[in-house]
Amino acid sequence: MDTRAFKRSLHDSGNYHRKGFGHSEDVNQKLQGEYQSSLIQQIRDRGYTWQEGDVTIRLAEAFGFCWGVERAVALAYETRQHFPTERIWITNEIIHNPSVNQQLRQMQVEFIPVINGIKDFSEVQSGDVVILPAFGASVQEMQLLNDRRCTIVDTTCPWVSKVWHSVEKHKKVEFTSIIHGKYNHEETIATSSFAGTYLIVLNLEQAQYVCDYILQGGDRQDFLAKFANAHSDGFDPDVDLERIGVANQTTMLKGETEQIGKLFERTLIRKYGPDQINAHFQSFNTICDATQERQDAMFELVDEALDLMVVIGGYNSSNTTHLQEIAIERGIPSYHIDGADRIGPGNQVEHKPLNQSLIVTEDWLPPGPLTLGITSGASTPDKVVADVLEKIFALKASPLPV
Ligand code: SF4
């Protein structure tokens, strides 16, 4: 499919919007009230440090709502204001944050139901308004909504669109896109729909496996089983790994994406020689600035003497999970929570250890003075961070045995 031509015709149709509707002043006021926090602003103003009783907070110098998320949420609010009576849908969570998604539900924005793992668009009618979230939607979904004559409000972050352009460039020159990402993440599902031949690798270990296959060959069936659900239809590792372009989910660990790119480049140089590398390898840097800044700030924070780290963000938020990985690598006890409700009753916390299900840990806040590192993912409002801090302050100030 010529995805570029489809996007051009969609953008030219009268039913497609990706800019606001002129209600930004009203909407900004609402967003301030719902998502900002004066406590967090004060902590920023005081050099990202705060002391209250026994607790010293060290806040990462880049955290929370990124530009792309703010833009997507504002556009969704503007959509509600602009279409007060129309039925409004969203194809997925707008961002990976439960409180923001709940707020949209309260504004009668409906989420496309998912039945047995498959989205059910049967209720969506001509004339309905459909919002595409910050991490985009697949080209097939856009096509379906366009065919059904829906009004589409596209909040896809421009950084995500940049990755789509990269894989379209690979497709144009018949290169296979190696996408560093999670095959079942909405953004990567959307990105792969714009690619031609593609393979999704989760991490450096999977990339190494592919590179070993490129150099030494291997069992084709084992390869396909290892990457089940993570490649384009008809993908053949014996044919489709000769010319490669690297792309990524915007929220992966930046260092890992770079290592993966270099690994493929070195591998193809070994196989085809340095003078042939441009005929076999392409790479564009598509890690977004916000992800990079939050990861860099986290690397600085974990260099400090912290007793423990609280990472706040949706459990399905890829960039939040990567922030937690950084704390774990440094051996700092870390708790990933998605909001203040996970704390308590008493000195307990319900949290999600990396790659595990939720667990409850008792006596998580030690007694006496405590230095706490705090960060939050790109889809977490300041207000959620403030609520977590208030709860921790109250807990440490209470007569509970903490
Ligand atoms: S994390 Fe990056 S790609 Fe994702 S919405 Fe924010 S700015 Fe856009």
UniProtKB/TrEMBL annotation:
Binds 1 [4Fe-4S] cluster per subunit. InterPro entries: LytB/IspH. It is an enzyme of class 1 (oxidoreductase). Its EC number is 1.17.7.4. It comes from the Bacteria. CDD domains: lytB_ispH. [4Fe-4S] cluster binds at C66, C157, C288. Its cofactor is [4Fe-4S] cluster. Pathway: Isoprenoid biosynthesis; dimethylallyl diphosphate biosynthesis; dimethylallyl diphosphate from (2E)-4-hydroxy-3-methylbutenyl diphosphate: step 1/1; Isoprenoid biosynthesis; isopentenyl diphosphate biosynthesis via DXP pathway; isopentenyl diphosphate from 1-deoxy-D-xylulose 5-phosphate: step 6/6. Dimethylallyl diphosphate binds at H96, H185, S317, S318, N319, S379. Keywords: 4Fe-4S, Iron, Iron-sulfur, Isoprene biosynthesis, Metal-binding, Oxidoreductase. Gene3D superfamilies: 3.40.50.11270, 4-hydroxy-3-methylbut-2-enyl diphosphate reductase, catalytic domain. It catalyses: isopentenyl diphosphate + 2 oxidized [2Fe-2S]-[ferredoxin] + H2O = (2E)-4-hydroxy-3-methylbut-2-enyl diphosphate + 2 reduced [2Fe-2S]-[ferredoxin] + 2 H(+); dimethylallyl diphosphate + 2 oxidized [2Fe-2S]-[ferredoxin] + H2O = (2E)-4-hydroxy-3-methylbut-2-enyl diphosphate + 2 reduced [2Fe-2S]-[ferredoxin] + 2 H(+). Pfam families: LYTB. GO terms for molecular function: 4-hydroxy-3-methylbut-2-enyl diphosphate reductase activity. Isopentenyl diphosphate binds at H96, H185, S317, S318, N319, S379. Catalyzes the conversion of 1-hydroxy-2-methyl-2-(E)-butenyl 4-diphosphate (HMBPP) into a mixture of isopentenyl diphosphate (IPP) and dimethylallyl diphosphate (DMAPP). Acts in the terminal step of the DOXP/MEP pathway for isoprenoid precursor biosynthesis. Belongs to the IspH family. NCBIfam families: ispH_lytB (TIGR00216), PRK13371.1 (NF009911). This is 4-hydroxy-3-methylbut-2-enyl diphosphate reductase. The gene is ispH.
